[in-house]
Design brief:
Number of strands: 16
Strand content: 5-15%
Low-confidence stretches: 1-19, 269-283, 785-790
């Protein structure tokens, strides 16, 4: 968390003297609190060090047996209290259970040490073996062994391993108590301590080597170091001569140093300052499947104690050994069962989509390998792609998109036949493998049934949505690779989309030929754009009332080096799909601006220029800056440039488009809504976006002189534009009757083949010369009379 100092706040707002004093006081309090936290940690480390040094001095001096045991009791109590504190402040339930288990173990040791110290203080001699203290000391290892064997389990699962570990603990405790009570001599107690020390070290080391979580791994690292110190110091206390054993010798020092070492590690070392090097945790030492073997520590204690009893008292040792082995076998069987279930779940997750539960791409390819060329009947692969899926996710969020995909998966499961394979191929694409389907007609019937059920209204998240899809179908062929089959279905699906979406398309050779042709054409188009060989044609626009030429629309033209003239309906969509439209569109705009500016200067006119703009161009941040630079370089007045935008561009990025249009209008550029009536025709666009002109699509003028419905629509559009103070342009005028109708409804401008086809730059210049030469004839009649005679 970032804390603002008084200086930071002074930089952001003016402060009077009392406010500044209050902030300074708060800042000083915060710094004092941080120092207090650091001081508290240092104080704990100092106390631990002081206890260790004091105990060492007492052991070396000798004769202070009571004080030595008191310090030993303080050491174990500090470790137990520290574990309780860590358990209460731990947010992880599993780690909290581990800390509580460890505090229980230290509590057993503290109880044994308290009893031993009290007995020694009252009677001045150590208690005889075996004593109550011995049983507490022997019990202290079992919570640690349980902690080492405790595995992290899901809350939804019932963990039977805990019950088996508790049973194994009970068997071990009984065997240990029987060994101490029934086997004569105090030497057996030392052997039991050694067995438990080795079992604890084995279990903790295995658990530390297989644990992955950082915090849990640190816990078992500290515990392993503690048990190692406990075992090493205990072994040294048995090997090294102890002249002062009865007066506080090295054995007491060994136990206290172990607990103090653990306390120092558990309290945590001071965190490194910024810029200091931090050591990364070591990698996992043992493979993950070893995890769970730490429970063997309990078995080692049970088996070793049973073997001791087996030597002296056969029945107790035999049955204890059998019980320990049976429980351990059940524990390992349960562990193997959990590992197997985990492996099955991992394999299922790797081969299935997590959202829908359907087979993913990997499993689909395996199924295709098995199905390709097999079976008695013909099989087909259906590739379904949802139409306009991105609009749903952009409008309602990814969570809504996930719900929609889950609904589609359920719909496919209930639609296809039993035995057919359904897969989520990726994103919003689904694949259905129709096995032994027979003829194409049956596959077409299933695909149509999917689209029919898909088009039904869907209620999701209190919203009713209508979804459509496009399906491509490819037939299985013997010897055909899986990748080839998927590519064929994908190509057929794109043909279905280009055919208007919400339809089914079978793969045929013409698709590959078209794809190869598109690739070749893309390469040629790219080369032509880079070489600047895209030319511009100019179609005149006339006023309907005064019959005068007022503007040109710039149209891209491409002469292919081998195929000749290529229709814009063919290469413009290809340019948009490949991203070439950015460079192509800017070339057309630049050439047209320079050309029209030159004609205006040459003939003393103020002819306007209309240029079509794609959605990709509007999405470019530098688009308006490029237009501004072209206008400056060409000398064309910004008020003479009109950008023509279709309705489909507006719904994709309204905010960006509105920003561009506002900037264009501020500089004097006019905006035209092109092909009005063919898209979504949202009247909201006309109100909130700065359009100056509306261009009626050519489809509304077809048979307008006979079709009263079309005539009424055109009349309504013109009247709407007039009421909104906008100009109206009618395109596609091909008959004199259409022209007369436009005059009757007071349309502003008209263009079409009746008036003039698009002309090259040379022919347009000749056309302008002829208009100037015929002073007595209107521009409009000069163009119209030859058309009427024809």
């Amino acid at each position: 968390m970032h804390h603002l100092s008084a200086d930071d706040l002074n930089d952001t707002m003016p402060l009077n003297q009392p406010q500044a004093g209050l902030l300074s006081f708060l800042e000083m309090g915060h710094r004092a609190l941080m120092r207090a936290k650091m001081t508290q940690r240092k104080l704990v480390h100092f106390s631990i060090t002081a206890l260790a040094v004091a105990h060492l001095a007492i052991c070396l001096a000798g004769g202070q047996v009571i004080l030595s045991n008191v310090i030993q009791l303080l050491a174990v109590l500090s470790a137990a209290l520290l574990c309780l504190r860590r358990a209460r402040t731990c947010g992880d339930v599993h780690l909290r259970r581990l800390w509580y288990g460890l505090s229980t173990a230290f509590g057993f040791w503290a109880a044994a040490q308290a009893h031993y110290t009290g007995y020694l203080a009252l009677r001045a001699v150590p208690p005889p073996h075996p004593d109550v203290a011995d049983f507490f000391w022997l019990s202290y290892s079992f919570p640690i062994l349980l902690v080492a064997s405790c595995e992290r389990a899901k809350r939804s699962e019932r963990d039977w391993t805990q019950l088996l570990d508790a049973s194994q603990t009970g068997i071990a405790a009984i065997q240990v108590c029987l060994a101490v009570l029934m086997i004569p001599g105090a030497m057996v107690i030392d052997r039991v301590y050694d067995i438990q020390g080795f079992a604890m070290l084995f279990a903790c080391a295995i658990r530390y080597s297989t644990t992955r979580g950082d915090e849990e791994r640190t816990f078992f690292r500290n515990l392993t170091v503690f048990v190692l110190c406990y075992d090493v110091f205990g072994l040294l206390s048995q090997i090294v001569p102890q002249p002062h054993l009865e007066n506080g010798g090295i054995r007491d020092l060994a136990w206290s140093l172990s607990f103090l070492t653990f306390s120092a590690m558990a309290i945590g070392l001071p965190k490194p300052q910024s810029g200091q090097h931090t050591v990364k945790a070591p990698a996992i030492l043992l493979p993950a499947h070893i995890h769970g073997v730490s429970a063997l520590g309990l078995v080692l204690t049970s088996v070793a104690s049973s073997v001791l009893l087996l030597i002296y008292h056969l029945p107790f040792g035999f049955w204890g050994l059998i019980a320990a082995c049976v429980v351990f076998a059940a524990r390992m069987a349960l562990r193997e069962s959990k590992l197997y279930r985990t492996q099955v779940e991992l394999e299922h997750d790797n081969l299935h989509d997590r959202l829908t539960g359907l087979p993913n791409r990997v499993l689909l390819e395996r199924e295709l390998e098995r199905s390709n060329g097999s079976g008695s009947g013909k099989s087909f692969l259906l590739l379904l792609d949802l139409d306009r899926f991105k609009i749903f996710t952009d409008s309602f969020g990814r969570a809504f998109g996930d719900q929609l995909l889950t609904h589609i998966a359920d719909l496919l499961r209930s639609t296809v036949r039993v035995g057919d394979v359904i897969s989520r191929f990726g994103g919003d694409e689904f694949v259905v493998v129709l096995k032994d389907c027979g003829e194409e007609l049956k596959a077409k019937e299933i695909a149509d049934r999917i689209l029919h059920r898909l088009s039904a209204p869907i209620l999701l998240d209190q919203r009713i949505v209508h979804v459509t899809g496009s399906i491509g179908i490819a037939a299985f062929e013997e010897g055909r690779s899986t990748l080839d089959l998927l590519n064929r279905a994908d190509a057929a699906m794109y043909m279905a989309k280009s055919a208007g979406k919400n339809c089914v398309h079978f793969f045929d050779r013409s698709i590959l030929d078209r794809a190869a042709e598109d690739l070749e054409m893309e390469s040629d188009l790219r080369q032509s754009v880079e070489d600047g060989r895209i030319s511009v044609a100019y179609q005149p626009l006339f006023t309907v009332d005064t019959h005068r030429l007022v503007a040109f629309e710039a149209l891209a033209r491409w002469e292919h080096p081998r195929q000749g003239h290529i229709s814009p309906e063919r290469f413009i969509p290809l340019a948009e799909e490949t991203g070439l439209i950015l460079q192509l569109g800017m070339q057309v705009l630049t050439k047209a601006c320079f050309q029209v500016a030159a004609w205006n200067r040459e003939f003393g006119k103020s002819l306007c220029l209309g240029v079509n703009v794609s959605g990709q161009q509007l999405a470019e941040k530098s688009f308006f800056a490029q237009i501004d630079q072209v206008l400056k370089d060409s000398g064309l007045d910004p008020s003479l440039l009109r950008l023509e935008i279709t309705e489909s561009v507006l719904i994709k990025n309204q905010e960006r488009v509105a920003e561009i249009l506002q900037a264009a209008c501020a500089s004097g550029i006019e905006i035209c809504l092109d092909d009005f009536g063919t898209g979504y025709s949202a009247l909201n666009y006309l109100v909130h976006l700065p359009f100056h002109t509306i261009k009626i699509d050519r489809g509304f003028l077809r048979d307008v002189e006979y079709d009263t419905t079309r005539a009424m629509l055109v009349r309504t559009i013109v009247q709407l534009a007039k009421n909104l103070n906008k100009k109206v342009v009618a395109e596609g005028v091909e008959t004199a009757a259409q022209l007369d109708f436009l005059a009757s409804v007071q349309c502003d401008l008209a263009q079409g083949y009746l008036l003039s086809r698009p002309l090259s730059a040379e022919r347009t210049r000749d056309f302008l010369k002829s208009l100037l030469a015929e002073r007595s004839t209107s521009y409009f009649q000069l163009c119209l009379e030859p058309a009427l005679k024809a």
